[in-house]
């Protein structure tokens, strides 16, 4: 990570990709708080670099929503999830069915 940061700089999309991978690991380790923190770092970089509707940003929104749901922060999760679904449908992203299922699950519990 240090080498990547020094070589590319802290705002490079490859750094965001690495942060996303770290987030994925922490989701698998059932540690959604740390996962969310990594996803949020990646989100900020990509948002600044590519704007609101970039496919990678949208996938990270979905992952952030999953993390927040695991933390029982459903209102915040819904905010990210609804935006991810709205943009994801336009972009025809591969994970849209999973996002819609997560939305249904959260809404059933509210």
UniProtKB/TrEMBL annotation:
PROSITE patterns: TPR (PS50005). InterPro entries: TPR-like_helical_dom_sf (IPR011990), TPR_rpt (IPR019734). TPR repeats lie at residues 16-49. The keyword Transcription does not apply. Keywords: Repeat, TPR repeat. The keyword Repeat applies. It comes from the Bacteria. This is Tetratricopeptide repeat protein.
